[in-house]
Each structure stands twice: as structure tokens, then as C-alpha cells.
Specification:
about 300 residues, mainly alpha
Length: about 300
């Protein structure tokens, strides 16, 4: 794919974000509505899109490709954990805030943004690979993420890892592995509900943008440095290793896009729960999401 082909697909997604921004500015929905909408995306639409993708990919996705994608997902999080530990001291001197930056390096928006981006660029059948990144994300978050913030590992935190997202992710893997074909009526219902994910998730980003101080978001030089490191430098640095593992060009592109996803919401949520200053994290989420319109096409282009 050429840079401009992917750029215009990303631009289309940006317009949907703009629709959410416009709706929020016009008072069409408030914070309560957005929270409820986010709950539906996380607990219903997003998981069902992953399951629908698997059901519609039976016979098209090989087990070998699934294994490779899972291996790449594990490697990505390991590399980002090390990068966060090494680079965060250069971006933040305060120890508590440094933890936030470490989390921002590791926990990307593989669901809310990753799914619509992969679906738009490569097709819905490739969303099933995202489920593997989401499963590894969940495991890493409830082990490394919680331990980093609390200073200790808690087995109890793993209970929260059992949620609709992980359940549907595991079901999606089972559907591919055992080549389960859902009845037409069930497949139709799951697909229709799953298709709601992309526009709703992107509009939710638009709402967050409308509720933010744009000067604080786009006026912090260190966040641009962080975004370039996370969205471009790290994925490109890992590309040679990725080429050694993957031979499939499209799977390579999918994984590179996953590597270059913007900051997710979980570092913000953890920081809020502990009463920390999360203003930099909130700004980084919006800034990195906006910059993805340019950085994702670059990653797809360099991946070949």
C-alpha cells in the first residue's frame, strides 16, 4: 500500500473523530452518556467484533499465522517494557510521574483504535489478530501494570482479567483453531453488533478531545518527543526483528500497525485511582491519537 492510500483511510477515521467532537460541542451527549457508551464498546461491541472476525475468517487464517502473531504480541510488550524503563527517566524526573510514562510506553490503544484501524486498512478478517494482542495486553496489564503502580504483584488483581474482552478473545481463538462455523443467524447478529465498534469508539475519542484543553495537549514539546519515540522510532527499530519472524507481508503490516498504536486509557485510569496527576497522560492520549493519522501510513509503507 502507498502512503497516501493509508493516509486517506486514516483521514476517514479522523473525520469520524471529528463527528464526535462536533456532537460533544453541540451538547448532543455528556460525560455520563460517553461513559455508558464506552462501557458498551468495551463489554459488548468490541468483544463481539473480535468474535465476528474469527467466525468470518474460518479457513482463511492459518494456525501458523496465529501462532506467529501471538509470539510477536508477547515480544512487543516485552520490548516496550524495556523501552519504557530505559527512556522514561529522560522524559520525567519525578518518580511517580515516571511510572505513568512507563505505562504509556507499554499500554497502547490496541482495542478502541487498533480494531477500526486494522479493519479499515487490511479488512475485518485481520481483526482476529488484534484479539491476540488484546489477550497479551490484559495479562501484562494485570501483572506488570498493577505491580509497577502498587510496588508489588497481587494475584487478586488477575481476577479482573476475566472480562468479556478476554472471554471473546479466547472464543475467537477456539473458533479459528477448531474451525467452528457459527449458525447464520448468530453470525449475523454478532457481526452487526461488532460493526458498531469502529464508529462509536472513534466518536468517543472525539468527545475526549472536545472536553480537553487543546493548548495543554499540543503545547508540550516533551510529549511530541515521547510520541515520536512510541509511534515511529520503536516500531521501526523493531522492524528488522519482525521481518525475521514473519514472511507474510500483510501480517507484517498488521503487526507494525499494532506496534504503532497511540497511548491507551489504562495508564490514565490507574493514575486516577491512585490520586496522581494524570494531565500529561491525558494529553499524550489525545496527541498520540491525532499523530497516528500520519505515523500509521508511514509504518505501513516501511513494512512493505
Amino acid at each position: 500500500m502507498t502512503f497516501f492510500t493509508v493516509f486517506f483511510q486514516m483521514l476517514a477515521l479522523l473525520l469520524i473523530i471529528g463527528a464526535g467532537y462536533f456532537a460533544a460541542k453541540k451538547g448532543m451527549y455528556d460525560a455520563h452518556t460517553n461513559n455508558r457508551m464506552s462501557d458498551m464498546i468495551v463489554n459488548i461491541f468490541n468483544p463481539l467484533l473480535v468474535l465476528a472476525s474469527a467466525a468470518n475468517s474460518v479457513g482463511q487464517i492459518s494456525l501458523e499465522a496465529m501462532k506467529l502473531a501471538g509470539l510477536v504480541a508477547v515480544g512487543m510488550f516485552a520490548a516496550f517494557i524495556l523501552a519504557g524503563m530505559a527512556l522514561s527517566p529522560f522524559l520525567e524526573k519525578d518518580m511517580q510521574q515516571r511510572k505513568i510514562f512507563q505505562l504509556m510506553f507499554v499500554f497502547s490503544n490496541v482495542g478502541f483504535i487498533g480494531i477500526p484501524v486494522i479493519s479499515s486498512i487490511f479488512g475485518t478478517q485481520y481483526v482476529v489478530y488484534v484479539s491476540e494482542f488484546m489477550l497479551v495486553y490484559t495479562l501484562v496489564f494485570y501483572t506488570y501494570g498493577i505491580a509497577l503502580m502498587e510496588g508489588r504483584f497481587s494475584v487478586a488483581s488477575l481476577r479482573a482479567a476475566i472480562n468479556p474482552g478476554t472471554v471473546c478473545g479466547l472464543l475467537a481463538l477456539a473458533v479459528i483453531i477448531f474451525e467452528v462455523r457459527l449458525p447464520d443467524f448468530l453470525n449475523t447478529a454478532v457481526s452487526y453488533l461488532g460493526n458498531v465498534t469502529s464508529p462509536m469508539a472513534l466518536m468517543a475519542v472525539g468527545f475526549a478531545l472536545a472536553d480537553s484543553d487543546l493548548k495543554k495537549i499540543f503545547g508540550q514539546p516533551r510529549l511530541y518527543v515521547f510520541s515520536v519515540l512510541k509511534l515511529l522510532a520503536l516500531p521501526v527499530a523493531l522492524l528488522p526483528l519482525l521481518r525475521l519472524v514473519l514472511g507474510d507481508t500483510e501480517l507484517l503490516g498488521v503487526c507494525m500497525v499494532m506496534f504503532g498504536m497511540p497511548v491507551g486509557n489504562m495508564p490514565l485510569i490507574l493514575g486516577n485511582q491512585r490520586g496522581m496527576d494524570v494531565s500529561a497522560c491525558s494529553a499524550a492520549i489525545i496527541l498520540s491519537t491525532a499523530l497516528c493519522v500520519v505515523t500509521v501510513p508511514v509504518l505501513v509503507m516501511v513494512s512493505g
